[in-house]
Amino acid sequence: MSQLMGIIQRLQSMQNMTDYDDFPQRQFEVNGKVICQVKFFPDKKTFEVEEYDKHKNKRVYQFDDIDAAAIEIFDIVQEVKNLS
User: Fold this and answer.
1) Are 73 and 9 in contact (CB under 8 A)?
2) CATH of the domain at 53
3) Which residue in 1, 12, 36, 49 has the fewest CB atoms around it within 10 Å?
4) How many domains does the chain have?
5) Are strands 46-52 and 58-63 parallel, antiparallel or unpaired?
6) What confidence tier does 64 reach under pLDDT thresholds 50, 70, 90?
7) Is pLDDT above 90 for 48?
8) pLDDT digits (tens, 9 = 90+) for 15-44
9) Which residues lie below 8 Å from residue 70, measured CB to CB, with a gap of 6+?
10) What is the mean pLDDT of residues 49-70?
11) Would you report the helix, strand and coil content of the chain in percent, each value rounded to 5?
12) What is the domain extent for residue 23?
């Protein structure tokens, strides 16, 4: 549960950013490897999650709910950890 809370806190900090040139974004890693990147679009109040597979292919998901975005990121992280 603490890992999910950590993800939510990172997403909340993106929502609270006011000083940025581009859209706020964060990367999530497992064992030093980037597995997804998240962007926040303040004008739409949406998150975009880009999930990367081992071949650097990506899938993109849009969320207008912080909890749904956090759960998706958590699931991606857990899936990669289980494969390691």
Assistant:
1) no
2) 3.30.720.20
3) 1
4) 1
5) antiparallel
6) very high
7) yes
8) 998 776 788 999 999 999 999 999 999 999
9) 4, 7, 8, 11
10) 93
11) 40, 35, 25
12) 2-83
